[in-house]
Amino acid sequence: QVQLVESGGGLVQPGGSLRLSCAASGFAFRSYSMSWYRQAPGKERELVAVISSGGSTYYANSVKGRFTISRDNAKMTVALQMNSLKPEDTAVYYCNTKTYLDYWGQGTLVTVSS
Fold first, then answer.
1. β-strands 34-39, 57-59: how paired?
2. Parallel, antiparallel, or unpaired: how do β-strands 67-72 and 57-59 relate?
3. Which single residue of 35, 54, 55, 61 has CA 20 to 30 Å from 75?
4. Which candidate, 44, 47, 40, 43, places its Cα nearest to that of 88?
5. What is the Cα 43 distance to its own chain's centre?
6. Within 13 A of 27's CA, how many CA atoms are on the CB side?
7. CA 10, CA 52: separation in Å to the nearest integer?
8. CA angle, 40 as apex, 109 and 19 as ends, to 5°?
9. What is the pLDDT of residues 54-94, one digit of tens each?
10. Nearest partner of 109 among 3, 2, 6, 36, judged by Cα
């Protein structure tokens, strides 16, 4: 079955960096786009970044120039490098893929605070 497991969240000061990772299994990883979403307290889940099977990327305007999404098809992982973090980046970050169904990881909490 499809599994997505995120890691790498934590507490970081404003201006700092974190690298999130998502380990995937149970599907033909290299054939599908992978996405990162986030959900801040009291807000709806929002799309952060997408990387296609061919490596094309999309970023939400709020993170463009600060975040970088990448994938390693051999390791079946997708990463989100987050730089110049702001308090408004505080959220639970989720890994997502859409095959025949919509699959989500359990989420990893990122807290940006001094």
1. unpaired
2. unpaired
3. 61
4. 40
5. 17
6. 21
7. 27
8. 40
9. 999 999 999 999 999 999 999 999 999 999 999 999 999 99
10. 6
